[in-house]
Amino acid sequence: MTFPPSQTEVTKRVVLRTMAKVYDPLGLAAPILLTAKVIFRDICDSKLRWDADLPEELKRRWEKWLKNLPVHLKMPRAIPREIGVIVELILHGFADASLLGCCAVIYAVV
Predict the structure, then answer these.
(1) Number of domains, the chain
(2) pLDDT at position 77, please?
(3) Average pLDDT of 99-109?
């Protein structure tokens, strides 16, 4: 997945389109996407039209997020080669929250 370089015209539509390019069904990229989602929320709160240019402050925040975004996001996963009888299953749960967002994850140790 690659993202466009800084654009001269940044709109609500461009921001949402760029965020939608992140395919993350397991939510592993959530820490990276949280900043973009907060920016998008602020864009929506400002009640801008979809194709209106963003105010300079929002545009600056968006471009800073884009600049700091890794070119490729790779999330390693442990996938077993063989599937046998499950002898024990332990669930580990973690959660955290702030004023800007919250998250939770549950890992299965088999």
Answers:
(1) 1
(2) 73
(3) 86
Alpha-carbon distance of 45 to 84, in angstroms, equals: 51
Identify which of 35, 87, 85, 109 has the alpha carbon closest to the alpha carbon of residue 15.
35
Residue 106, φ and ψ in degrees, nearest 5: -130, 125
Q: How far apart are CA 92 and CA 44, in angstroms?
A: 36
Per residue, what are the HEC states of 3-28? CCCCCCCCEHHHHHHHHHCCCCCCCC
Greatest pairwise CA separation for the chain in angstroms: 58
Is residue 7 situated within a structural domain? no
Instruction: List the one residue out of 57, 64, 70, 54 whose CA is nearest residue 16.
Output: 54
Domain range holding 55? 12-77
The answer to the question of residue 93 being in a domain is no
- Between CA 57 and CA 60 the distance in angstroms is 5
Confidence (pTM)? 0.72
